[in-house]
Amino acid sequence: MSTVGILGGTGPAGQGVGLRLASAGYDVVLGSRDAQRAAGIASSLEVRGTGALTGATNEVASASDVIVVATPWDSAVSTVSALREQLEGKVVISMVNALTREGRELVPLYPPRGSMAAQLAHAVAKSQVVGAFHHLPASEMVNLDSSLDADVVIFSDHADAREHVAQMVEAMPGLHAVIAGSMSLASAVEAFTAVCISINIRHKAHSYVKLAGLGH
């Protein structure tokens, strides 16, 4: 089974993905600029399964087989660019959303290439960038006792990488993989995260995406 490194994995979103991957049997490294902080957060999360969850620097995390980028949007490109050689040839999962707050709402920002996934794909052109994990409430992800039953929309220009990420998602408790298509969908998928978060702020809820009619 692949090892997984999460760049910027100490944030709420990265913690949730890491915990559920470890609970699915993956060995996961939560990466951070501060290795001590990462180790402390990893040790505080209770894995239920056969995987392991540890903390280290982003550079150590980048040695894993599959990489998840969970950094803030404004540091994502610089983070992966500094690790370009280590990420060459690997599947790199972008869960990054470029958002800004206006009042009680989140609104999407559009990077020069239209999406954060496209920005990362340009920065690490020899990696296989896949978009996933955009619409998930972090508090529900990190709580393994939650009744989470969410669909994860997946997109990439690399068909084999898409399938690999879909298999990973299907193994994670409470999640189902939905392959949407190519990188051309990245902007729409990422922007919809603003809708999800704004709804949750307005209704004081932890809603998520569930697509009816897919037979799962």
Task: Explain what this protein looks like in three dimensions.
It is a single chain. The protein is built from nine helices and ten strands. It is an alpha/beta fold and 216 residues long. The chain has a single domain (3-203), classed as Rossmann fold. The strands form three sheets. It has a six-stranded parallel β-sheet with strand order 3-2-1-4-5-8, with helices on both faces. Helix 4 (73-82) runs parallel beside helix 6. The protein starts with a strand and ends in a 13-residue tail after the last helix.
Instruction: Give the tally of structural domains.
Output: 1
- Share of helix, binned: 25-40%
> Secondary-structure element order, as H and E?
EHEHEHEHHEEEHEHEHEH
Assigned CATH superfamily: NAD(P)-binding Rossmann-like Domain
Approximately what portion of the residues adopt beta-strand conformation? 15-25%
Question: Could you list some keywords that capture this structure?
Answer:
alpha/beta, two-stranded antiparallel ribbon, 216 residues
Task: Offer a concise description of the structure.
With 216 residues, this protein is of the alpha/beta class.
List the helices and strands and how they pair.
Blueprint: E1 3-7, H1 12-23, E2 27-32, H2 35-44, E3 52-57, H3 58-61, E4 66-69, H4 73-82, H5 84-87, E5 91-94, E6 99-102, E7 105-108, H6 116-123, E8 128-131, H7 138-142, E9 150-155, H8 159-171, E10 175-181, H9 186-203
Parallel strand pairs: 1-2, 1-4, 2-3, 4-5, 5-8, 9-10
Antiparallel strand pairs: 6-7
Helix pairs in contact: 4-6
